[in-house]
Specification:
By secondary structure, this protein is an alpha+beta fold. It is built from 18 helices and 20 strands. It has helices spanning 14-18, 20-26, 35-41, 53-57, 83-94, 104-107, 115-124, 128-134, 149-158, 187-198, 203-210, 220-269, 282-291, 298-303, 308-312, 316-322, 327-343, 451-456; strands at residues 7-13, 46-51, 61-69, 100-102, 135-141, 160-163, 166-169, 177-181, 274-275, 345-346, 361-362, 372-373, 377-384, 393-400, 407-414, 417-425, 431-439, 460-463, 469-478, 484-489.
Length: 493
């Protein structure tokens, strides 16, 4: 059974590596000492951190964690002349965001171990692959790197990305691995060869290549234990993300109930009138979606069009075809529909503004606040995030989607890509994160006339919330009294 419980790893604090005095006090000509020596001489260098398998599969470790892949140069020490330490220090000095570094010699008990150290070693080693799959990776490459089992396995993991469908080769935009060549190795030859060999390998191909007898390992048992794991990595990633998605879905549904969905269900058992689900018109289906907090899809349902009878007989593939791209939303909608098919739809859920008039009016989130007729709506924000090449772009306009009337898209051309962040934005100034998308190595139109097509046809529709962030969203709308209503803030996607 796949466990979502976190695993405890030892890490070296990156701030210690950036401190010349601390570094001189602990290092020698052959780099830093072993884990046991560090714990005796400078225990404050080591930080125990819980790492969640979900965070690893979602690559949430990339920003703060650096994992080092390297060869051992001698049996007693991996870094005989200190060259590996120099490469690591140079990396963390350049990447000041890194907080923790994992290097096996520094972070795992070495040599003869006490019973407690052996237990710690045995509890950690089986999960090391999570670190290479989920964090930033520094590959320190010498001439022997391409002949070793562990290093090639680590390199392959560092060039994979975890998705709901399993492992896929990482895209150029989301590379996590940096290759540094030392001694007589050069990037022009060994470095490029490493990427050519491993960047596009499937788990099955990686297994077959690493199983070859010329791929050496010090302890054959390590190879025997790890090879089956390579074949099962796809299943592990799918199971981990699926289990997490179900847990998040359950939490989300619970939250939605607290925010109002439960009131709709309670209305069914009251004396209020209900309508059979199969009798709903296309317009009423749109109103129902708004009542279930899935109004973003109402325009797509209306365009098909989808009636209540269609919705009652829909399955997951039908909803996906209509345009419900988020799997969690499809599952939630199917659960809600199954319940309403038995109990009927409360008429209170069908009093929302019709799809035909949704372009003219937006109902404010607070029931005591009057609705605002939008005559003009200007939206701007500041766009940044981990996939923005360190750039922050101010005064980015939020452009309205042609069919999804509450959806505003912030879009920029940056680093050869078209990058987009979508928010539901209302005249009250409230905003809600919808998703991030991009066109990879393509520049698509980001003007008001073309933004709908640019959004709908994106190459990648799964950019995480911290990929393209939009802060300081400013909304300016014309109200009934022809007064400007200005709202600003920093939304939390």
């Amino acid at each position: 059974m796949t466990s979502l419980l976190p695993i405890v790893f030892n890490f070296v604090r990156a701030d210690k590596l950036r401190d010349p005095r601390a570094l001189r006090s602990l290092s020698s000509s052959d780099g830093l000492p072993s884990y046991q020596q560090i714990m005796r001489q400078a225990p404050d260098w080591i930080e125990k951190v819980e790492v969640s398998p979900v965070d690893a599969c979602q690559h949430k470790l990339v920003q703060d964690y650096l994992i080092v892949s390297h060869c051992w140069e001698a049996q007693h020490t991996p870094d005989t002349v200190g060259e590996q330490l120099k490469s690591i220090v140079a990396y963390v000095m350049l990447h000041t965001n890194i907080k923790f570094v994992w290097f096996d010699f520094w972070c795992l008990p070495q040599g003869t171990r006490t019973p407690d150290e052996q237990a710690e070693f045995d509890a950690t080693l089986p999960h090391i692959n999570l670190l290479y799959l989920g964090a930033s990776v520094l590959i320190i490459m010498d001439m022997s790197y391409l002949a070793r089992f562990w290093t090639q396995y680590e390199a392959w993991l560092s060039m994979q990305t975890a998705t709901d469908a399993g492992l896929r080769p990482v895209t150029a935009e989301h590379l996590r691995a940096t290759i540094v060549c030392i001694h007589t190795a050069t990037f022009e030859f060994q470095g490029k060869q490493l990427r050519q060999i491993w960047a596009t390998r499937t788990p099955e191909q990686a297994h077959d290549m690493l199983a070859k007898p010329d791929v050496r390992v010090t302890n054959q048992r390590d190879k025997d234990v790890q090879l089956p794991k390579i074949r099962s990595m796809n299943d592990f990633v799918v199971a981990t993300l699926s289990k997490h998605s179900r847990a998040v879905e359950a939490q989300e549904i619970s939250s939605l109930h607290a925010l109002g969905i439960r009131r709709h269900r309670d209305a069914v058992s009251s004396s209020g009138p209900v309508k059979r689900l199969v009798e709903l018109s296309v317009d009423e289906v749109g109103q129902l979606l708004h009542g279930l907090d899935l109004g973003r899809y109402s325009a797509a349902f209306n365009a098909v069009p989808v009636t209540g009878a269609d919705l009652a007989n829909a399955d997951d593939s039908d909803l996906k075809e209509v345009g419900v791209e988020v799997a969690m939303h499809r599952r939630r909608l199917l659960q809600q529909v199954a319940g309403l098919a038995k109990t009927g739809v409360p008429m209170s859920m069908l009093k929302a503004t019709s799809n035909k008039n949704i372009a003219q009016t937006e109902q404010a989130g607070n029931a005591t606040e009057p609705s605002t007729v939008i005559k003009a709506l200007t939206v701007t924000g500041t766009m940044g995030g981990r996939y923005m090449s360190g750039k922050t772009i101010r005064n980015v306009p939020g452009l309205p989607h042609m069919r999804e009337k509450a959806l505003y898209i912030f879009a920029v051309h940056e680093d050869g890509h078209t990058k987009m962040a979508g928010f539901e934005i209302f005249s009250t100034g409230s905003s809600k994160w919808v998703g991030g998308r991009n066109h990879i190595k393509k520049l698509k139109p980001v003007d008001a006339a073309s933004i709908s097509s640019t959004w709908d046809t994106a190459d990648n529709k799964d950019v995480p919330a911290d990929g393209y962030q939009v802060t300081n969203i400013h909304v300016e709308s014309m109200t009934k009294g022809n007064e400007h209503d200005k709202r600003g803030g920093t939304p939390k996607p």
